């Protein structure tokens, strides 16, 4: 079956829906690119400074988590592909939620196995804390369902071409096709991703300065980060 394609203004690339044949490359992309560069994960790794044995456990968590995410049919995957090499250059993962299927517990419960490393457990805990600051359905009382942009990433060799924004536009197009969805939602952890969301039309409804975030002992978790760095929950009515 032919894959669905979306419009793309980036020369030498096209945007399409992923299928099962793409799974292994998607797992590699998410494990080796997204989890190596995502703001919170990157800082947690720097601060943890894991030894060889700890790094093995973290790498196992990376593979298990991303494999579960890619293979879960509840998540839709949209990819950017380099025409000349057929290499997957970037990915957007999105999922639609209702009041009934919205997870009340943290994100690790969305996966088959719990993380074994402190770094991953902490990451899920921080994301859960941020997510709980806003009750989407209380804030938007007319919202039956919303689509969350779970993550977007582009390979370093394919950046600075506008692919991330093209992926976001395709995700918006998919979300608008569901008559019950009238809201886009996402948690954005970097200035770049926040700017892309603003360009799409999203606005921030909650911000947390992560440079001031402390653990239970009062120690700053994300040391060395820009003191103005915020994590932002951003939404957009559609």
From TrEMBL:
Source organism per UniProt: Cephus cinctus
Protein name according to UniProt: Uncharacterized protein LOC107269439 isoform X1
Molecular function GO terms recorded: N-acetyltransferase activity
Entry superkingdom: Eukaryota
């Amino acid at each position: 079956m032919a894959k669905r394609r979306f419009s793309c203004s980036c020369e030498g690339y096209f945007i399409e829906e992923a299928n099962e044949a793409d799974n292994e490359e998607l797992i590699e992309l998410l494990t080796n690119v997204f989890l190596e560069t995502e703001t919170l994960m990157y800082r947690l790794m720097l601060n943890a400074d894991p030894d060889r044995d700890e790094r093995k456990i973290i790498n196992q968590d990376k593979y298990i988590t991303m494999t579960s995410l890619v293979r879960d049919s509840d998540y839709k995957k949209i990819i950017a592909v380099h025409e000349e090499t057929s290499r997957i250059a970037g990915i957007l993962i999105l999922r639609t939620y209702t009041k009934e299927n919205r997870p009340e517990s943290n994100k690790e419960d969305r996966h088959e196995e719990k993380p074994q490393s402190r770094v991953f457990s902490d990451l899920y805990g921080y994301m859960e804390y941020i997510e709980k600051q806003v009750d989407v359905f209380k804030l938007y009382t007319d919202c039956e369902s919303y689509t969350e942009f779970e993550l977007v990433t582009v390979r370093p060799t394919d950046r600075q071409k506008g692919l991330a924004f093209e992926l976001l536009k395709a995700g918006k197009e998919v979300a608008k096709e569901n008559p019950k969805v009238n809201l886009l939602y996402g948690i954005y952890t970097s200035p770049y991703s926040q700017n892309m969301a603003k360009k799409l039309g999203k606005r921030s409804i909650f911000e947390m300065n992560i440079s001031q975030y402390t653990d239970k002992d009062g120690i700053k978790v994300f040391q060395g980060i820009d003191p103005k760095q915020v994590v932002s929950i951003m939404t957009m009515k559609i």
